[in-house]
DNA sequence: CTTCGACGACGAGAATATTCATAAATAGAT
DNA sequence: ATCTATTTATGAATATTCTCGTCGTCGAAG
């Protein structure tokens, strides 16, 4: 699930992106209208998180543009209290929801979940890639209905690489995302490699894995 | 390290408390001036996180009262942008720092860390309880200089109970705090009990553990 | 084309975490 | 005081995670 976060206040953006990433969303950041439009034109996002007060104009301009072209993208408007006046009340401009600052991250999470479910139907929690089916909610994987027994770490790695398909994911990114607090983990260790190895060994039984690349000096990538 | 969070906006308070708890702070919440003063009079806090716009008055009244009596308590003021006018600029009223909403939780964490270090000197990362010394930063425990080999989970449990000494901590609290996402964990399991048991077995070798109570139907508590 | 060094793959084993079955302890009811 | 139901403690088995040593492979330099 890809999300574009349009917000000029960097700390807030970081906080939001960090939270969403940890919940399995793949995020990009834009800090202005122009950057946002640029991103939207070059990538496919499922959700747009849109702050209204941007340095080079109102987020509404972005929203209008989006609604002209990409109708399936969900838009959540973020606004300071009071900034949302009557004129635009009722979400007539085509936003799916809105949040007033300051908001709790869990609140954002709940809105997102609801919207995604509304748009994509009830089962968004499945991830299908190269014949494998990942049920994100209960950590189950199968290939052609044949269940595969992955450990939690193996599942986490598979899920994260799959969510970020076609992008190289570094070992550091995996560590930060899956293990969280980076300080607890010994960095000059090959535990990621070992988990990847074990994951591959299990997947390999079912099909060829040439799409599961090792990118030397960088990390791992799942191509689709 | 005990913190009182004075903030009437419940979602924000929850978010902050959740974050701080996960970083080893022990938090209480007050949503009004009167509740805050009540808490301050009955408990000892190291830091006061104080929102200014409260339903029954300004947080400044709380601050003034605090400065009359409890001079060693650190105070961080939380305020909406613009709410902090010139009259009170420069922290003349005795606050140690302030943050404007919206703020990033990591920013709050950094300020807290700095303030606590300023007040308590450089080494706040040791916890001493009943003869045991916990070095929080590198997961080491010792009793009379004799090192004790605890696993990470055992250390986490010991630390959390010690930080919350004299309070009963439920299994759910331990699960949420140490394992994080509660959904991943099978709740009808006794894994907490097992970790507690193993922890006790290791501590027990060095001294009597009558202060490490099991509170039937509730959880565990370390008395001091 | 060969050599060298760095990086990743791999196997095996140690350490840790979790599950499970059963025993002991506790509190309430009889 | 005894019984009973529920909660916690315990030992042991199982599963998972992480560490370590070694080997293979890739790519750059000669």
Describe the structure.
2 copies of one chain form a homodimer. Chain A is α/β, with parallel strands linked by helices. Chain A folds into 2 domains: 2-120, 3-Layer(aba) Sandwich (Rossmann fold); 126-222, Arc Repressor Mutant, subunit A (Orthogonal Bundle), CATH 1.10.10. In chain A, 38% of the residues lie in helices and 25% in strands. Chain A is built from 7 helices and 14 strands. The first copy, chain A, has helices at 10-22, 33-42, 59-69, 105-120, 152-163, 171-179, 191-204; strands at 2-6, 26-30, 47-51, 53-54, 57-58, 74-80, 97-101, 126-129, 132-135, 140-143, 146-148, 169-170, 212-215, 219-222. Chain A has a 5-stranded parallel β-sheet with strand order 2-1-3-6-7, sandwiched between helices. A 4-stranded antiparallel β-sheet of chain A has the order 8-9-10-11, covered by helices on one side. In chain A, a hairpin with a 4-residue loop joins strand 9 (132-135) and strand 10 (140-143). In chain A, helix 5 crosses helix 7 (191-204). The two termini of chain A are 15 Å apart. The model of chain A is unreliable at 86-91 (pLDDT under 50). Chain A binds chain B through residues 9, 11-12, 14-15, 101-107, 139, 152, 180, 184, and chain B through 9, 11-12, 14-15, 101-107, 139, 152, 180, 184. Chains A, B: It holds the Pfam family Response_reg. Chains A, B: This is Response regulator transcription factor. Chains A, B: Keywords: DNA-binding, Phosphoprotein, Transcription, Transcription regulation, Two-component regulatory system. Chains A, B: InterPro entries: CheY-like_superfamily, OmpR/PhoB-type_DNA-bd, Sig_transdc_resp-reg_receiver, WalR-like, WH-like_DNA-bd_sf. Chains A, B: The modification 4-aspartylphosphate is found at residue 51.
